[in-house]
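Private note to self, pasted from the team thread so I don't lose it. Backbone tokens:
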């Protein structure tokens, strides 16, 4: 590594201001700081120093996502081999087939999104931020395995350019870029991003396993009529609470990965990168709203209202969104009390959107994006409440002293 560092230092002047390759300074700096600690230091008066910088934060999130990626590869290959009745398929065959499906999606996301990052950094004369390492990985994990690669390119382009760069880049965006990209694809190409047949890659439609429909648990629950038994309907389609915990089922690439998501949550909370208050708030909001809907008369409302809270927790992308999306430090609430309010409202909105919106049985994506917009307002009222409390205390103190 010492020889590599010396080589980089030797060619550094070519990319500095006045050098022949100064136009490529952003690319050079990105590679240099990716491999080694930045050589620049803060100059001027006394300043505070912290060992936790943007690079360390983003790399921690990437590490936390690795278990989800590995599970997504295995589950995608497993679903492919089961549905297509591949004889003798075992662990390594699942990994092989899953890799052929998942890795191209991730590579396209990084390649196209990285192009826009480099372009905007070069034009603005800014360094390339490590934030894209997370966005480029989160976005593919929210997609179904059947997504066309050209739509991956279009989606990540929208998320990076419109969701982040138009606001000034990493740290200035008001919406989560990965979810912005996912929302764009959902509304622009609903056929390829939703429906019953998008969750498993089918090699030969005439040779699929008997009884396979491709409907996810959320899709099944949304179709239960008034007075229907939602738990029984899920069981008839092969879904139980324990099977959903295992996660070997159709869905977006990482949304069924319970254990890997929990591992990621431990990493984020233990490192201080992810807010446990937001995660806990999401669970509280979901359980409270689901429990409240369970109190409604079953005969007067559709069966989805009777789905128990712990089923809501295990279905769809709630866990993945609560751990990796809602906790985005840029677009989430920043105050301590605001984080609790922000998380609780996300959890409540998830259930409300699922149950009340017949055209959209999920809800996590829209709930988080809506609260991204409302996060500054939440923080504003929290700060104002603190100021009023402080003013009241100062008045009482002044009165007592006088």
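Design output:
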């Amino acid at each position: 590594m010492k020889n590599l560092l010396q080589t980089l230092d030797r060619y550094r002047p070519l990319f500095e201001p006045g050098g022949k390759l100064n136009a490529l300074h952003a690319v050079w700096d990105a590679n240099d700081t990716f491999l080694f600690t930045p050589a620049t230091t803060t100059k001027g008066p006394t300043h505070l120093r912290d060992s936790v910088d943007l690079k360390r934060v983003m790399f921690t999130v990437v590490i936390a996502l690795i278990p989800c990626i590995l599970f997504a590869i295995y589950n995608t290959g497993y679903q492919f081999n089961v549905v297509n009745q591949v004889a003798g398929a075992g662990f390594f065959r699942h990994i092989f087939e899953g890799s052929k499906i998942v890795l191209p999606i991730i590579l396209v996301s990084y390649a196209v999104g990285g192009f826009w990052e480099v372009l905007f950094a070069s034009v603005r004369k800014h360094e390339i931020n490590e934030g894209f390492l997370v966005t480029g990985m989160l976005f593919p994990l929210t997609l179904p395995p059947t997504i066309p690669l050209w739509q991956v390119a279009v989606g990540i382009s929208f998320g990076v350019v419109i969701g982040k760069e138009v606001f000034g880049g990493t740290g200035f965006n008001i919406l989560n870029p990965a979810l912005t990209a996912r929302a764009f694809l959902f509304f622009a190409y609903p056929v390829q991003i939703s429906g019953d047949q998008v969750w498993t890659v089918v090699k030969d439609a005439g040779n699929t396993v008997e009884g396979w429909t491709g409907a996810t648990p959320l899709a099944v629950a949304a179709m239960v009529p008034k007075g229907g038994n939602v738990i029984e309907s899920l069981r008839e389609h092969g879904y139980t609470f324990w099977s959903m915990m295992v996660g070997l089922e159709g869905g977006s690439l990482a949304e069924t990965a319970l254990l890997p998501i929990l591992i990621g949550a431990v990493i984020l909370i233990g490192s201080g990168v992810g807010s446990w208050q937001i995660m806990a708030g999401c669970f509280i909001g979901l359980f409270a709203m689901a429990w409240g809907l369970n109190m409604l008369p079953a005969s007067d409302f559709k069966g989805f209202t009777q789905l128990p809270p712990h089923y809501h927790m295990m279905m769809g992308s709630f866990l993945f969104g609560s751990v990796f999306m809602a906790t985005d430090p840029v677009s989430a609430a920043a105050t301590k009390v605001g984080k609790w309010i922000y998380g609780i409202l996300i959890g409540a909105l998830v259930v409300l959107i699922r149950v009340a919106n017949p055209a959209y049985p999920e809800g996590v994506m829209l709930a988080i994006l809506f609260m991204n917009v409302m996060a500054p307002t939440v923080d504003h009222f929290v700060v104002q409440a603190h100021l009023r409390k402080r003013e009241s205390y100062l008045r009482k103190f002044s009165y007592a002293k006088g």
